[in-house]
Amino acid sequence: MAISPLNLKEVERRAFRSTFEDGLWDMYLGMIFLSFAIIPLLDQLVPSETAQLAIQAGYVVIVMLLFLAGKRFVTVPRLGRARFGPARKRRVLNARILLLLSVLVGLAAWLIFASGADIEGSLVLLLFAVNIIVVLGGMAYFLDYDRLYLYAGLWALSIPAGEYLREHAGLSQATSVFFVTAGLAVVIGLILFIRFIQTHPVVKDTADGGAQV
Amino acid sequence: MVARKSEEIPVQSLIDLDRLIHEPARLTIMMLLYVVESADFTFLMNQTGLTWGNLSSHMSKLEEAGYVAVEKKFVGKKPSTMAHLTDSGRDAFQTYRRQMQLLFDGLPD
After folding, report:
1. Measured distance CA(A212)–CA(A205) in Å, rounded
2. Residue A66 to residues A31, A60, A63, A195, B3: CA-CA distances in angstroms?
């Protein structure tokens, strides 16, 4: 390891970052943002609003279950487990608080919309883009997850880009741009996942303290 | 070139270093366990690049010295071997770290 033995912060950061090697976070977040491209299509395919909501909720739940199953059955047997210290736990908590605040802001925005308030569309898009940058950028900082900065920038830019293409290039839905940008995260995640499986064989800890690789 | 006087070279600092920690593989293991609360052998294996046998051998030495505690338990039906630094292990590592910092700071240019 080409690290100074006294650079413990870097050791801890590398150890924590290794948990993102499997690409599952990339695929998970990519699939969530992909839903922004898929959901508007539901308007055309499924007339019932209740059915639309059920499909959206079901999609999010399935994606989350696949992510958790991947971590449990693929990542942990290959990467192992570690419990990180208080400083890291605080950073993870900050990331979760940021995410929760984002959900609350989104909920508040939705409630304002639903109340029939007259708000300019471009302002809403701007707030959405700012929300993405602040939340995902903040999460990238707290989780030392550098690829998330890239995704934050791409997905925030997708909003004005999509709107521009819709107005000038005949794109049917502004959110269709998410097919490309969120899809990129899914592809990156998949490549990382395949590489992870190839480079990290399953290690079975035997009861007598030995191991099978 | 004039030979350096022996008292200008921190030989005593080198002699005082904990030889158990001052071995590359064990130093790497101690560093990792110092920055986490606990980790299983699979995680340590991945982070250190050691083979299971090599890791076990070094962990046994650290355990014998009382620097590391190893718990073998079952998570569901699967065996899991978790390791963490003991208080004396943390103290020993902190002492080692201070000694190394003083050693390098004390070296002439």
Report:
1. 7
2. 11, 10, 5, 19, 67
Q: Is B50 on the interface with A (CB under 8 A)?
A: no
A119 inside 8 A of chain B by CB: no
Is B39 close to A79, i.e. CB distance below 8 A? no
| Full-model pTM | 0.83
Tell me which residue in B39, B97, B100 faces A80 most closely, judged by beta carbons. Answer: B39
- Cα atoms in the Cβ-side hemisphere of radius 13 Å centred on A144: 18
For B35, the closest of A85, A206, A207 (CB atoms) is A85
What residues does each domain of chain B span?
Answer: 9-100
What are the helix and strand counts (H, E) for chain B? 5, 3
Assess A80–B contact: CB distance below 8 Å, yes or no: yes
The first and second tokens of residue A55, run together, are 């499909």
Q: What is the dotted CATH code of the domain comprising B9-100? A: 1.10.10.10
Which residues in chain A are closer than 8 Å to B80, comparing Cβ atoms? Answer: 81, 205
d(CA A26, CA A42): 24
pLDDT in tens, A133-173: 999 999 999 999 999 999 999 999 988 888 888 888 877 77
DSSP state of A74: I
Over the stretch A50-103, which tens digit does the pLDDT of each residue have?
888 888 889 989 999 999 999 999 999 999 999 999 999 999 999 999 988 888
